[in-house]
Amino acid sequence: MQTFNTSLQGKRALVTGGTKGIGKAIADELAQAGAQVIVTARNHPGEGNTAHHFIAADLTQAADVAQLVNEINTKFDGIDILINNVGGLTAPGGGFSTLTDEHWENELQLNLIAATRLDRTLLPKMLEQKSGVIIHISSVAGKLPLWNLNMAYAVSKAALNSYSKALATETASKGVRVLTVAPGATKTPPMEKFIQDFATASGISLEEGYQQLLNQVGGIPMGRMAAPEEVASLVHFLVSPAAAYLTGTSYAIDGGTLPVV
Ligand SMILES: NC(=O)c1ccc[n+]([C@@H]2O[C@H](COP(=O)([O-])OP(=O)(O)OC[C@H]3O[C@@H](n4cnc5c(N)ncnc54)[C@H](OP(=O)(O)O)[C@@H]3O)[C@@H](O)[C@H]2O)c1
What we know:
- This protein is α/β, with parallel strands linked by helices.
- It contains 7 helices and 7 strands, in the order βαββαβαβαβαααβ.
- The longest helix is centred in the middle third of the chain and has 29 residues, at 101-129.
- The chain starts with 11 loop residues before the first strand and ends in an 8-residue tail after the last strand.
- The mean pLDDT is 95.
- It comes from Filimonas lacunae.
């Protein structure tokens, strides 16, 4: 009989953007489960703020990624688990006319191309060892674009979803699983700043801003945002041996936000 094995003992995991928010929660959770965790971000989180091996890299820069992978291969001889968590909303709201080529390019670099570049450089060793798991952190916005708030971000996450599915099919018979996790509104500093900026720009209170944003996505049936640790629990399960038959699928973790089946 198969046991429900979620131990990550002996696994090497890289969490991009693993110093804050959802990425930090994932890094801590995977380490708790026994993995050796490497985190990367542009800035060191400060002494005492991370228990994991930190490597500085801006993932939108090809030269930084080459250095990062070189250090990983030299010090750890590759990895078993790759969490592509880096991403975010950087373009302004306001619809199509506010979005320049530069906004579109930046959003695609951060939310799509950073992941394709890192996968391309780390996958060969996974394929060699005939095992590995890659997670792409997407967003419910990929299926629920809001024209006035997140058009370019939503499009870049939809592209990430499609890429993740294609890669999963390509590597399924070679021992590498690829999955997508799509959080809804999650209580991280950028989300709180986003709500604050929206409320300030609209001349309303923080609470009214929060309610208006919830209304735009049709409300969150559970009535609250996710905690980063809740997203981390799902990721932990997906990268563990207990999820050995899962690949090519996408998991929304959104308190019921997506209104479609
Ligand atoms: N929070 C939400 O409500 C929510 C909802 C749906 C999906 N998501 C997705 O979840 C992921 C994490 O979001 P979050 O809210 O946890 O973000 P966050 O708190 O801002 O953390 C982002 C992390 O990525 C790093 N980072 C940012 N740009 C980088 C770059 N160019 N190169 C390397 N590292 C970079 C940051 O560190 P440095 O600044 O030091 O580089 C930080 O460690 C993103 O993909 C986001 O789209 C979030």
